[in-house]
Amino acid sequence: MHTLVDIRGIVVPSSDDAQTKDGLYVFGWLKRGPTGIIATNLSDAEETVASISEDFVKKELKLPRQSQAEKDLVGYWKIGAFLLLHSVIGKR
C-alpha cells in the first residue's frame, strides 16, 4: 500500500521536499500504511486535527485547489442530494 509523506499530518509533496502541501492533511492508513488499531488511528487523527486547528488559528488554513472537473462533480452531488431530499420530503 502506498502512503503519503507528511509533517504532523500535513502532506508534503515528496520526502525530498520539506514544503507542506496547502490544504491537504492525512491520518490513519494513508499516513502509515495498513497497521495499527483504532487507538493508533485516533492518535494520528489527533495530531492531524491539531495541525488543522493551528493553521485555522493562524489564518493559514487553505483549501486544496479544485479542478473544474472536481467542481462540476461537487455540483452534481449537490444537485443529486437536493433531488433526493426533495423526493423524500415530497412523499410525506
Automatic annotation (TrEMBL):
Superkingdom in the source lineage: Eukaryota
Cofactor section: FAD
Keywords assigned: FAD, Flavoprotein, NADP, Oxidoreductase
PANTHER family named among the record's database cross-references: GLUTAMATE SYNTHASE 1 [NADH], CHLOROPLASTIC-LIKE
Name of the protein described by the UniProt record: NADPH:adrenodoxin oxidoreductase, mitochondrial
